[in-house]
UniProtKB/TrEMBL annotation:
Protein family membership: Belongs to the oxygen-dependent FAD-linked oxidoreductase family.
FAD-binding PCMH-type domain mapped to chain residues: 42-213
Pfam annotation, one family: BBE
Cofactor: FAD
Protein name per the record: FAD-binding oxidoreductase
Gene Ontology terms for molecular function: FAD binding; oxidoreductase activity
This protein's UniProt keywords: FAD, Flavoprotein, Oxidoreductase
Domain of life from the UniProt record: Bacteria
Keyword flag Signal: no
Length: 482
C-alpha cells in the first residue's frame, strides 16, 4: 500500500482511534490552527487529524490506524524543519510534542530523551550535572529532526555530531511495530537513523552519550562592519588553521539583531559576526580567541563567560516561530579567496533585515570519524553555508519573491564551489537530486536498500525522501497485513 491519493479530511469517518490515549484534534476543534502551526509560518497545511501522542504505544496505535485507513502520515517532533514536513494536507499528523521528558544518568553519562523534546529540555536537564551532548544552536529546535539528519552544533568539533553520540533509539516501524535500534539491535537501521532522516520509522526515544561541558563556557559573537567582510573572512580562515577542537565557530552575515545587549543604534546595521563557543576552561578560551577579538575594529564584542544553557538559547529570539523562512544551502569545497569574494558580494543583497547567512566550521571530531560510520556524509567538509531568507508574515508576496530570489541567486553564484549539502538545510523545493547530493552514491544506495527493508511501501515519505529500491521485510518483522 503506497501513499493514498484518495479523500481528504472528510475521508476520516471518525475522530476516534481505538486504544489511543492521547488527544485527537480535528479541523472543527478550537485549537486546530494552533496545533497545525509549525516554526516556518509560510507552511499552511491542513491535516485531517492531529494525534498528540502520550507515549510510544500511542505512536504505534496511530501508525496502525493510518495504515488501516490508507491515510497520509506526517510526523511532528519539534516542527522546526524549514520545509514543513511535520504537516501534511489531509491524512494524520502523528504529533510527539507532548513527549518531552528527559532523564539523565550522570554516572553512566547517558541521557534518555523522548522524541518530542526540544534542545532546551535536553540542555537544562543535562547541565544540572555539568554534562551535555552536541545539540542545535537554537534551543527551540526539536531533538528528533536535528538528530536524525546529523546534528551540527557548538560541540561537534570536540564531541562529534549529534548522531555520533546516539547510543540507541526506540523506533515505531511502518508496520506499527516497536523495536530498538543500536549497534547490536537492528544495526542496519541504527546506521541509517544516524543521518538518514525520518525515512525509516518514528523515533520515540533517543539515548545519547554525554560529556563534561560547562556549566560556564566562554562564548558569544564579535561584529564588524559589512565593508570589512573580506578582511574578516581571510583573517578568520587563517585563525582556524590551528584552533583546538574545543573551539566551535559560526560566521553570520546580515544585520545586527536587536538583542538587549547591543546598543540600539547598531540594531539592523549590516555586519559580519564570528560567534564562538569554547568547550573547555574559560581561561584557555580567553587566550585562544584574543586574536579574533582584537582583529580590525569590531563594532561590538559580546564574548564573555556565560552559562552553556544561556548560550544555547542566545539567538532564539532572532529566529522565532511564525516568521516566513526560505533556505538554500551547500557544503563548500574550501574557504578560498574566490568563495570569500562571492560571500562578500551576495550576503548583504537581501532586502529583509531578518535575512542572514550562516557558515559553520566543521572538522575536528566530525572529520575524524570514518566516512561510513553513519549515514551523515559530510565528514570531509570544513565549512557549510546556509542562506536564510526571512520576512514577516504580514509582508506581501513581493517581499517573499525578492528574498527567495536572493537566496537562489546566492546559491547559484557558489555553483563552482559546491560539494554536498546538509540534509537538514534542504527546503521544500529542493528536489530528489539534492537529497541524493546530501549522501552521495554509495551512502544513498545503502539507505535505499535499508528503506526497502523497513519501509518498502514508502509510508514515511513526508521527509527528505529516500526511495526504497525493493521490498523485503526486516529480520524478525512481518510485513503489515491488511
Amino acid at each position: 500500500m503506497g501513499p493514498s491519493t484518495r479523500g481528504g479530511p472528510m475521508s476520516l469517518t471518525t475522530t476516534r482511534i481505538p486504544g489511543f490515549r492521547g488527544r485527537l484534534i480535528a479541523a472543527n476543534d478550537d485549537d486546530y490552527d494552533r496545533a497545525r502551526a509549525v516554526w516556518n509560518g509560510s507552511v499552511d497545511r491542513r491535516p485531517g487529524l492531529i494525534g498528540r501522542c502520550s507515549d510510544t504505544n500511542d505512536v504505534a496505535t496511530a501508525v496502525r490506524f493510518a495504515r488501516a485507513h490508507e491515510l497520509e502520515i506526517a510526523v511532528r517532533g519539534g516542527g522546526h524543519n524549514v520545509s514543513g514536513t511535520a504537516m501534511c494536507d489531509d491524512g494524520i499528523v502523528i504529533d510527539l510534542a507532548p513527549m518531552r521528558d528527559v532523564w539523565v544518568d550522570p554516572a553512566k553519562r547517558i541521557a534518555y530523551v523522548q522524541g518530542g523534546a526540544l534542545w532546551c529540555d535536553v540542555d537544562q536537564a543535562t547541565q544540572t550535572y555539568g554534562l551535555a551532548t552536541t545539540g542545535g544552536i537554537v534551543s527551540h529546535t526539536g531533538v528528533g529532526g536535528l538528530s536524525l539528519g546529523g546534528g551540527i552544533g557548538w560541540l561537534m568539533r570536540k564531541h562529534g555530531l549529534t548522531v555520533d553520540n546516539l547510543v540507541a533509539a526506540e523506533v515505531v516501524t511502518a508496520g506499527g511495530e516497536i523495536i530498538r535500534a543500536s549497534a547490536t539491535d537492528h544495526p542496519d537501521l541504527f546506521w541509517a537513523l544516524r543521518g538518514g532522516g525520518g525515512n525509516f520509522g518514528i523515533v520515540t526515544s533517543f539515548r545519547f552519550a554525554l560529556h563534561p561541558v560547562g556549566p560556564t563556557v566562554l562564548a558569544g559573537p564579535v561584529f564588524w562592519a559589512a565593508e570589512d567582510t573580506t578582511d574578516v573572512l581571510r583573517f578568520y580562515r587563517d585563525f582556524l588553521t590551528d584552533v583546538p577542537d574545543e573551539l566551535g565557530n559560526i560566521v553570520r552575515l546580515g544585520t545586527i539583531p536587536p538583542l538587549p545587549a547591543i546598543s540600539p543604534e547598531l540594531h539592523f546595521r549590516t555586519a559580519i559576526a564570528v560567534a564562538s563557543c569554547y568547550a573547555g576552561p574559560v581561561r584557555y578560551g580567553e587566550r585562544l580567541v584574543r586574536a579574533l577579538r582584537e582583529f580590525g575594529t569590531p563594532l561590538v564584542d559580546l564574548v564573555a563567560p556565560t552559562s552553556y544553557v544561556d548560550h544555547q538559547a542566545s539567538i532564539d529570539d532572532t529566529v522565532p516561530h511564525g516568521w516566513h523562512y526560505y533556505w538554500k544551502a551547500t557544503d563548500l569545497t574550501a574557504l578560498s579567496d574566490e568563495v570569500i569574494g562571492i560571500v562578500a558580494e551576495h550576503a548583504y543583497r537581501a532586502t529583509s533585515p531578518r535575512s542572514y547567512v550562516a557558515m559553520f566550521h566543521l572538522g575536528g571530531a566530525v572529520g575524524r570519524a570514518p566516512s561510513d560510520a553513519t549515514a551523515y556524509n559530510g565528514r570531509d567538509v570544513d565549512h557549510n553555508i546556509v542562506i536564510d531568507a526571512a520576512w514577516l508574515p504580514e509582508q506581501d508576496e513581493t517581499v517573499a519573491a525578492t528574498e527567495t530570489a536572493w537566496a537562489r541567486e546566492f546559491l547559484d553564484a557558489l555553483q563552482g564551489h559546491r560539494a554536498g549539502v546538509y540534509v537538514n538545510f534542504l527546503d521544500s523545493d529542493d528536489n530528489a537530486s539534492r537529497v541524493h547530493d546530501a549522501y552521495g552514491d554509495n551512502t544513498y544506495d545503502r539507505l535505499a536498500d535499508i528503506k526497502a527493508t523497513y519501509d518498502p511501501e514508502n509510508v514515511f515519505h513526508h521527509n527528505k525522501n529516500i526511495q526504497p529500491v525493493h521490498a523485503r521485510p526486516a529480520p524478525g518483522l512481518e510485513p503489515l497485513r491488511p
